[in-house]
Design goal:
Largest sheet of chain B: none
Structural class of chain A: alpha+beta
Radius of gyration of chain A: 21 Å
Number of strands of chain B: 0
Shape of chain A: globular
Order of helices and strands of chain B: HHHHHH
Mean pLDDT of chain B: 88
Oligomer: heterodimer
Strand order of the largest sheet of chain A: 12-14-13-16-17-15
Mean pLDDT of chain A: 95
Distance between the termini of chain A: 26 Å
Structural class of chain B: mainly alpha
Helix content of chain B: 25-40%
Shape of chain B: elongated
Number of domains of chain A: 3
Largest interface: A-B, 33 and 27 residues
Low-confidence stretches of chain B: none
Strand content of chain A: 15-25%
Distance between the termini of chain B: 47 Å
Largest sheet of chain A: 6 strands, antiparallel
Number of strands of chain A: 17
Radius of gyration of chain B: 19 Å
C-alpha cells in the first residue's frame, strides 16, 4: 500500500486505516458490505488530483463517498480507497439564482443558509438531512418535489470533476454525467440553480381503498401548477406508520389551496413520508426498489400487482416512481419482468450500484462504457458499479 | 402517533438518519465518531475511543426513524472496566479513597491510578 504517499498529500489527520474506521466505511445505507483499503479526507482539488494519479499508477480503485445514504451499494468499497468528501463542503460563489458549492456540502446545511435569502435547492430526497450534493448528482436524486422540479440534473449549471487521469474537467453536459455514481469522474464542485422558497405551503390528504381509485384524483391534481409534490402511501405502509390501513395520497401545494395549512400538521405528514422506508425496513422489508412507470393507467395496474405480492409500497406517484419494499433475499426476477412489461424502468432515482447491475439495460451499459472510456480509461473510479 | 418503547440497537438498518445532528460527527467529519458508526461497532462487538468522544446528548436517538435506543453509556462503561479501575472503585467503596487502607508509615502493596 501507498500510505506514506497518501499521508504526504492529505496529512496524517486526514487518513485512517484502523479496523474500526474500515468497519464504519465498509457500507452505506444498503445491505452491501465491502472492504476499504484506506479512508482519505481530501480538502482541496489538488489533493484529489494527486490521489487519483497514485491510484492510476497502481491500479487502485477509488470509491467516492458523500453522506453514505445510498440504497444500492454505490458507495460500498471493493478493496478501494474511500474518498470521503465531507471536508469539501464550502460555498464558493453565490448570486441570486445560482450557487457554486463543493461536492461534500449537506443538502439541509445548504438550504438552511439559502433560506436566509428566501431561496433553496428544490430537489429534496428523504435523506435531505444527511445526503450531500455530490451524492445527489451521482445518483441523480429526485425526491418528493420531483413532480414540480424534476431531478438533480435539472438544477445543475455545470460541474467540475477530476477524471481518471487526475485532470480537472468542466462538465457542461450534466444530463449525461448525473447518475454515473462515481464511475466516470470525482465531482469536486457544482454550480446549482436555485428556486424561491414557497411563501405558503398547504396540503390535502386523500384516502381511498382500491389502487384504481387513485385515478379519481391524480389527473386533476397533476394539472395544478401549484402542485409541489404528490406522494402515496399504500395501506400496509400506512398501517406501519400508525395511520388508517388505507391508501393515503398526499398533495402538497405552494399556496393555500389545500385544507391542511398549519405548519405543525404539514411537518407531521412530511416526516411521516420521510420516515416511511426506515419504518418499513425496521419491520423486515429492507430491500427497497424504485421502479418508474410514467403512464398513469399502467401505474395503477402495477399497484394491483404489488397488492397481490402483499408488500408495502409508497412513493412519488406524481412522477411515476414507487418504492415497493421486500424482505432481503426475495427473488425479484418476476418483479423486474413486470416493470419492463409495463414499459417501466427498474430504477427511477436510487441508481444501480451493486444491487441492480444485472438489470442494467444493454444500451445504458454501452453508453456508460463509452462515456467512462473518455474520462476514466484505466477504470480506477468506482470499479464494478453499474457496469 | 404515540410514544413507544425504545428498541434495541441490533435492529439498526444503517439508514444514517441519526448522523444528521450529531455534534461529534459535525466536528470531526468522521463517521467513526458518528452514531451510525458507533451502532455499527456495537453490532459487530467492536469498541473504540469514539464512545468516549460521544457527548451522550442523544440527538441521534431523536432522529432515529426506528426509535432505537442509541445510548452509548454502556459501551463507555465496558471500556472503563480495566483491572486498575475496578480496584480503585473497590477501594473507594471500602475505604473512601482509590488507594486502599491507609495506615501511618505503611505504603500500600499495590497502587492503582487512572
Amino acid at each position: 500500500m501507498h500510505l506514506s504517499e497518501f499521508e504526504s498529500i492529505v496529512g496524517k489527520e486526514n487518513l485512517n486505516y484502523f479496523p474500526n474506521t474500515k468497519l464504519v466505511y465498509s457500507s452505506d445505507a444498503s445491505m452491501y458490505k465491502g472492504n476499504p483499503l484506506v479512508v482519505l479526507w481530501p480538502e482541496t482539488i489538488e489533493q484529489i488530483q494527486k490521489i487519483v494519479m497514485i491510484a492510476k499508477k497502481n491500479f487502485l480503485d477509488i470509491t467516492t463517498r458523500g453522506g453514505g445514504t445510498g440504497l444500492v451499494g454505490g458507495a460500498v468499497p471493493k478493496r478501494s480507497i474511500v474518498l470521503n468528501m465531507s471536508k469539501m463542503n464550502k460555498i464558493l460563489d453565490f448570486d441570486n439564482d445560482s450557487i457554486l458549492v463543493e461536492a461534500g456540502i449537506v443538502l439541509d446545511d445548504l438550504n438552511m443558509i439559502l433560506s436566509q435569502k428566501g431561496l433553496y435547492f428544490p430537489i429534496i430526497p428523504s435523506s435531505h438531512e444527511v445526503c450531500t450534493i455530490g451524492g445527489m448528482i451521482s445518483c441523480n436524486a429526485s425526491g418528493k418535489r420531483a413532480v414540480k422540479y424534476g431531478s438533480t440534473k435539472n438544477y445543475i449549471n455545470y460541474l467540475e470533476v477530476v477524471d481518471g487521469s487526475g485532470a480537472v474537467r468542466k462538465v457542461n453536459d450534466v444530463e449525461k454525467f448525473c447518475g454515473t455514481e462515481g464511475t466516470v469522474g470525482i465531482i469536486v464542485n457544482a454550480e446549482l440553480k436555485l428556486e424561491m422558497l414557497p411563501k405558503k405551503i398547504s396540503m390535502d390528504v386523500f384516502k381511498f381503498d382500491r389502487a384504481t381509485d387513485m385515478s379519481i384524483y391524480t389527473p386533476e391534481l397533476k394539472e395544478k401548477p401549484q402542485l409541489l409534490s404528490l406522494e402515496l402511501l399504500d395501506p400496509k405502509t400506512s398501517s406501519m406508520l400508525n395511520l388508517e390501513e388505507r391508501y393515503h395520497l398526499i398533495a402538497e401545494y405552494e399556496n393555500s389551496l389545500g385544507e391542511i395549512r398549519e405548519p405543525e400538521e404539514i411537518e407531521k405528514w412530511d416526516s411521516l413520508r420521510d420516515s416511511a422506508y426506515s419504518k418499513i425496513a425496521g419491520l423486515g422489508y429492507s430491500l427497497i426498489e424504485d421502479p418508474e412507470i410514467l403512464d398513469d393507467e399502467k401505474l395503477a395496474v402495477f399497484m394491483k400487482y404489488l397488492e397481490g405480492l402483499n408488500v408495502p409500497f409508497f412513493g412519488h406517484v406524481g412522477i411515476g416512481i414507487l418504492h415497493p419494499c421486500f424482505k432481503q433475499g426475495t427473488d425479484l426476477a418476476d418483479f423486474f419482468k413486470t416493470v419492463e412489461s409495463l414499459g417501466g424502468s427498474v430504477t427511477g432515482e436510487h441508481g444501480i450500484g451493486l444491487a441492480k447491475k444485472k438489470y442494467t439495460p444493454k444500451i445504458m451499459r454501452d453508453k456508460l462504457l463509452l462515456y467512462k472510456k473518455s474520462f476514466d480509461p484505466s477504470n480506477i473510479l468506482n470499479r464494478g458499479k453499474i457496469i | 402517533m404515540t410514544d413507544v418503547k425504545k428498541k434495541p440497537l441490533s435492529g439498526c438498518i444503517n439508514c444514517g438518519m441519526c448522523n444528521a445532528d450529531c455534534p461529534t460527527l459535525k466536528a470531526t467529519n468522521n463517521e467513526l465518531f458518528g452514531p451510525r458508526g458507533r451502532a455499527n461497532m456495537v453490532n459487530n462487538n467492536s469498541s473504540d475511543e469514539s464512545f468516549y468522544i460521544c457527548t451522550l446528548c442523544r440527538a441521534c436517538e431523536a432522529k432515529c426513524p426506528l426509535n432505537l435506543e442509541l445510548d452509548f453509556r454502556k459501551e463507555r462503561g465496558k471500556l472503563q472496566r480495566t483491572k486498575a479501575n475496578e480496584e480503585m472503585i473497590k477501594n473507594i467503596r471500602k475505604y473512601g479513597n482509590p488507594i486502599g487502607e491507609l495506615k501511618d508509615g505503611k505504603v500500600p502493596d499495590e497502587l492503582y491510578c487512572c
